[in-house]
Write a structure and sequence with these properties.
The chain is mainly α. It is built from six helices and two strands; from the N terminus they run βααβαααα. It has a two-stranded antiparallel sheet. Helix 1 packs antiparallel against helix 2, helix 2 crosses helix 3 and helix 3 runs antiparallel to helix 6.
């Protein structure tokens, strides 16, 4: 793994952040805001990390999924209270204060969808390389 700025992934992260911001500001339903928003968090973190790190995409995706689940379990164990950060708004936003098992489901579905997309993309790339290689 090495550091390198990849603008294409930074652009994706920015676009997903914009969608997340829109969801957070304007959606007040029981599906899109809690479920789709959490699903997209996995994508946002993946593309943000991918814009800065050169590493295997599947390994990075697994790390992002584990991180998201760890944050959710931190909510289950009331990490904000354990760290005495109840009065710090940023801590409550980033770490969260309420555990919801559906969030784990959303993170998992987000990771699986992203993994499937990465696999399709890789197969297309492999096929394009194979088709440009002259037969031997």
């Amino acid at each position: 793994m090495r550091l390198a700025l990849t603008p294409r992934y930074a652009l994706w992260a920015g676009l997903i952040f914009g969608v997340e911001l829109g969801i957070g500001l304007y959606m007040h339903d029981r599906f899109i805001r809690p479920f789709v928003g959490d699903l997209l968090v996995v994508w946002l973190l993946f593309f943000l990390c991918r814009s800065l790190l050169v590493t295997a995409p599947s390994r990075l995706l697994l790390a992002v999924w584990v991180f998201c689940c760890a944050v959710e379990f931190g909510q289950y164990w009331r990490l904000v209270e354990v760290l005495h950060l109840e009065q710090v708004a940023l801590a409550r936003i980033v770490i969260g204060a309420t555990f919801d098992g559906n969030d784990l489901l959303a993170y998992t579905l987000g990771a699986l969808l992203l993994y499937a997309w990465l696999q399709v993309r890789q197969r297309r790339t492999d096929h394009a390389i194979d088709s440009t290689t002259p037969p031997q």
